[in-house]
């Protein structure tokens, strides 16, 4: 087998691992596949590499994929329309009451949703440092080289990311439909009244808000953190003459906001320790309509 064929065979045998790595960093399977393919194109260019000079081919391929993923993350964070990076493409919606609150699959779905939102709030270097070290066991020295940081700085990046992830205590996630619905109802009630004090009271101190306007409403994109910023934005939720339909989105307490029967937004909430910890609001008109269209029409309240 010549050097080019050997490189191709080795890359293909590593493609699954490399794609999993890129997907964990980018939180987007399709984008991860594109990154891995781009890495292969770069590696396979004539004169791009001398196979015999590489001591650790797996490490070398990992480096290329991580750096390409990091560049993709940085480019994405610079584009307002990609603040939450296609998160709304993977939403699943159903009517409330169509599954048991003790359904372990539903609980796991909610935890996964909440964790992904946390990861999306991290800066690109934080996410890379955390994912590589905590999920893939890559030593900090190697990560530091990838990020062009000192080892101490890289440890601090991972530590900051870890603290945000650990703030999501899955044992405190509210899974009882009635309990979490009462919290979300209190949120909308306070927003409708313009009661800032009541809004602050129902929000977790570390609350985050993610508005995803997609390509149709990029001006609505936002990533906010903290009670003050989120409560001030809450005035936008008080849509005059709006109808609120209780749903479940990816295992979380959800609401479809309609006006004149037209769906304007689909919102998902995680409730932690009796307060709202995360809000995700899909505002892209096309994607909202597509998501709501998957709800059964024969549901009876």
TrEMBL record:
Note the Gene3D superfamilies from the entry. Answer: 1.10.1740.10, 3.10.450.50, Winged helix-like DNA-binding domain superfamily/Winged helix DNA-binding domain (1.10.10.10)
Which molecular function terms from Gene Ontology are attached? DNA binding; sigma factor activity
Q: Which UniProt keywords apply?
A: DNA-binding, Sigma factor, Transcription, Transcription regulation
Q: Which domain of life is it from?
A: Bacteria
Matching entries from SUPFAM superfamilies are given as: NTF2-like, Sigma2 domain of RNA polymerase sigma factors, Sigma3 and sigma4 domains of RNA polymerase sigma factors
One Pfam family name is: Sigma70_r2
- Per the UniProt entry, what are the Gene Ontology biological process annotations, in alphabetical order? DNA-templated transcription initiation
Annotated ranges, domain RNA polymerase sigma-70 region: 11-77
Any idea where the RNA polymerase sigma factor 70 region 4 type domain is?
114-164
The keyword Transcription regulation belongs to this UniProt entry's keyword annotation: yes
Q: InterPro entries in the record, alphabetically?
A: ECF_Sigma-70_Domain (IPR052704), NTF2-like_dom_sf (IPR032710), RNA_pol_sigma-70_dom (IPR014284), RNA_pol_sigma70_r2 (IPR007627), RNA_pol_sigma70_r4_t2 (IPR013249), RNA_pol_sigma_r2 (IPR013325), RNA_pol_sigma_r3/r4-like (IPR013324), WH-like_DNA-bd_sf (IPR036388)
Listed under subunit, the entry gives: Interacts transiently with the RNA polymerase catalytic core formed by RpoA, RpoB, RpoC and RpoZ (2 alpha, 1 beta, 1 beta' and 1 omega subunit) to form the RNA polymerase holoenzyme that can initiate transcription.
Q: Which family does it belong to?
A: Belongs to the sigma-70 factor family. ECF subfamily.
Protein name, entry field:
RNA polymerase sigma-70 factor, ECF subfamily
What species was this sequence derived from?
Tsukamurella tyrosinosolvens
């Amino acid at each position: 087998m010549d050097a080019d064929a050997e490189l191709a065979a080795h890359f293909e045998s590593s493609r699954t691992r490399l794609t999993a790595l890129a997907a964990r960093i980018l939180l987007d399977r399709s984008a991860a596949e594109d990154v891995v393919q781009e890495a292969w194109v770069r590696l396979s260019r004539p004169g791009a590499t001398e196979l015999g000079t590489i001591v650790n081919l797996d490490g070398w391929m990992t480096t290329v994929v991580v750096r390409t993923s990091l560049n993709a993350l940085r480019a994405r964070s610079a584009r307002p329309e990609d603040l939450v990076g296609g998160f709304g493409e993977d939403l699943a919606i159903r009517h409330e009451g169509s599954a048991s609150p003790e359904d372990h699959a539903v609980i796991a779905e909610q935890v996964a949703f909440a964790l992904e939102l946390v990861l999306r709030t991290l800066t690109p270097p934080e996410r890379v440092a955390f994912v590589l070290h905590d999920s893939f066991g890559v030593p900090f020295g190697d990560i530091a080289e990838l990020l062009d940081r000192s080892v101490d700085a890289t440890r601090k990046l991972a530590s900051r990311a870890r603290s945000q992830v650990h703030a999501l205590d899955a044992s405190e996630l509210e899974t009882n439909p009635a309990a979490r619905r009462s919290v979300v109802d209190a949120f909308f009630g306070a927003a409708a009244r313009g009661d800032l004090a009541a809004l602050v009271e129902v929000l977790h101190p570390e609350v985050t808000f993610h508005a995803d306007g997609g390509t149709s409403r990029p001006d609505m994109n936002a990533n906010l953190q903290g009670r003050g910023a989120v409560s001030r934005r809450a005035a936008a939720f008080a849509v005059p003459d709006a109808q609120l339909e209780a749903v479940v989105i990816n295992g979380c307490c959800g609401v479809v906001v309609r006006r004149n029967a037209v769906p304007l937004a689909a919102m998902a909430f995680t409730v932690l320790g009796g307060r709202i910890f995360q809000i995700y609001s899909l505002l892209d008109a096309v994607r909202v309509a597509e998501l709501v269209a998957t709800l059964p029409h024969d549901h009876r309240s």
